[in-house]
Amino acid sequence: MSEVPWLVVPAAGRGRRMGADRPKQYLELQGRPVLAHTLARLYQAFPAARLCLCLDVDDRHFDPAWVPFADWRRVPGGAERVDSVTNALEAIAGTAGERDLVLVHDVARPCVTVDDLVRLHAALADDPVGGLLAAPAADTMKRDDGAGRVSATEPREGLWHALTPQGFRYGLLCRALREARARGLAVTDEASAVEALGQAPRLVAGRRDNLKITHPEDLGLAALVLAAQAASPSHHRGVDPSG
Ligand SMILES: Nc1ccn([C@@H]2O[C@H](COP(=O)(O)OP(=O)(O)OP(=O)(O)O)[C@@H](O)[C@H]2O)c(=O)n1
Ligand SMILES: C[C@](O)(CO)[C@H](O)COP(=O)(O)O
């Protein structure tokens, strides 16, 4: 029987780049808010997991009916994503064990498949460091000169897009985020904090359609992805019965 993970879902962003009338996690996608889709995918993969949901303290849109988990708690969001995740880890101090696996997943990634969730979980079961879903860069990469022109073409070999979930043992993740804060490092994901400790997180190849809804056009793309996934049953495969 495999280990049931903790889930941390940072959902306290304001969606500034989306520029909508509400945070993007509450925008409608196939008739339901983005947040409800994301939590449903996580629940399909890990029905017995314990969830920490990071929400803005001034959130006026959230409805607990969208949370399918039996064991969940609401945690106040912080100023940045990393602060929201840190608040979640602090909220479960004393309950979570040092070696417990914590999977952190952006609420803004509703298209993650059950198959990828289960594969990541399995890949991290015995990994001494932890790791993340990631997709190899598929485009030619340009660097700008700061004035709208190309200054260089960067080799893409070995470059990956960091996706979520990202999963690490509770003790290691707490230490990594604490040290990153102490050193004033700007970390945009959990892996970069762990890297700053000198550790090498495992890259687990994930689907490129696990997109992060960020800009206005991403909402339409996510709707197309969900429709395409519904037409193919592959993402329902591999649900862990012990979860
Ligand atoms: N203070 C914050 C900022 C972000 N997030 C969450 O972190 C994830 C990734 O962040 P991003 O895509 O940047 O979301 P927003 O912060 O909402 O977007 P923007 O940067 O455009 O305002 C999202 O699930 C978002 O809700 C969070 O929990 N707390
Ligand atoms: C964690 C993340 O999704 C990895 O790609 C991403 O860094 C979060 O988005 P942000 O715009 O950097 O907050």
CATH superfamily caption: Spore Coat Polysaccharide Biosynthesis Protein SpsA, Chain A
Residue-averaged pLDDT: 95
Which small-molecule species are bound to the chains here?
A: cytidine-5'-triphosphate, ligand LQXTBERG
Shape category: globular
The count of β-strands is 11
| SSE order, one letter for each helix or strand | EEEHEEHEHEEEEHHEH
Sequence of strands across the biggest β-sheet: 5-4-1-6-10-7-11
CATH topology: Spore Coat Polysaccharide Biosynthesis Protein SpsA, Chain A
- C-alpha end-to-end distance: 9 Å
Features of this protein?
isoprene biosynthesis; single chain; 243 residues; nucleotidyltransferase; two-stranded antiparallel sheet; 11 strands; binds the ligand C[C@](O)(CO)[C@H](O)COP(=O)(O)O; Spore Coat Polysaccharide Biosynthesis Protein SpsA, Chain A; disordered C terminus; binds cytidine-5'-triphosphate; EC 2.7.7.60; alpha/beta; 2-C-methyl-D-erythritol 4-phosphate cytidylyltransferase; seven-stranded mixed beta sheet
